[in-house]
Amino acid sequence: MHLYIHIPFCKQACHYCDFHFSTNTASKSAIVEAIAREIVLRKSYLPQGDMETIYFGGGTPSLLDEAELHFLLETIRGHFRLSPDAEITLEANPDDLSAATLQMFAHAGINRLSIGIQSFHEPHLRFMNRAHSATEAEQCVKLAQQAGIDNISIDLIYAIPSENHDILLSDLSKAFTLNVPHISAYCLTIEPKTAFGSWLKKKKISPIEEEYAAQQFEILLQSLLDHGYEQYEISNFARNGRYSNHNSSYWKQHPYLGVGPSAHSYNGASRQYNVSNNAKYLEAVQKDIIPATLELLSPADQTNEYLLTGLRTKWGVELQVLEKLSAGAFALQASEELTSMSRKGWIRQDSGVLLLTQAGKLFADRIASDLFID
Ligand code: SF4
Fold first, then answer.
1. Residue 362 belongs to a domain with what CATH number?
2. pLDDT tens digit string along 60-84?
3. CATH of residue 84
4. Start and end of every Radical SAM core domain (predicted)?
5. How many structural domains does the chain have?
6. Separation of alpha carbons 196 and 127, rounded Å
7. Which of 9, 164, 244, 373 has the fewest CB atoms below 10 angstroms from its CB?
């Protein structure tokens, strides 16, 4: 069983971000109460079993104070049986990570941190409107390790406009000195409903050039591989098998419950999307109503989702599972495309598993969508 908790508050809006969050934290305690209530209301959503992963995402869960974090974890412990080695991750921003806060997290049971570093370069942090400084980015990881949390992932953003690749190389070299077991690397994308999106429309900034982004990704990939990181998902790299168990469960299509404003849930047959509005969420949950939209997944939806997420991972997709999900339609509809892609050297088959080649990983989403069935 897997649980995602969305904490929809941030100190300030990063210029690239289109996640759901509010910078007005006045309703934080009320939202935390409502999330706890939603956990109780929806405790039967998941099949029976131990809770294997809990993931506090957002927004900025490191804005939770001790009482709020304890309250949420106690609610979970009161209604679910936690696996003895449950992975409990909290997304954190460097500016929140004082030694005292990190000790509080460790004491509460947080055993994995996903830290939104994004860059160690001050002008890039300012360009993206991140709340932390380059110094905080470097210090927070050491403080977390001193607090006894060594299962740490850091997020980095590449393809930030720059004259050459020197800043990316310097960011990577700083990341390697921190000796973290997991790095997630995301390409800067300009989404319409963000500050960058509006500046692009007004021509205040230029679009990110595809060739520049591809060059940066190749540099990043090679550096990570050279430093012993395994690319187990297109954007995710781990040393010594220290994968994100929570995110891997999404990619392997395991059921999960997502609580909080904008959170999604999946039970194999359908997806549910909670309303992306803190006030509406609060009002509904206070009346014991789950403000969610239900989407029933057709065999084609389930097949296509499995392709989209599975092909991005080192585990690939099992042909037998594709046949089962699609009720036999995958082989009928996709066999020509499969042959053409393997001729191009983008995919390969190994014991009934379809995998992307190193060349194919550059076009992962396009390959998946070309294999989609109707
Ligand atoms: S801190 Fe994270 S969730 Fe909040 S605005 Fe920045 S990127 Fe988005």
1. 1.10.10.920
2. 999 999 999 999 999 999 999 999 9
3. 3.20.20.70
4. 1-230
5. 2
6. 10
7. 164
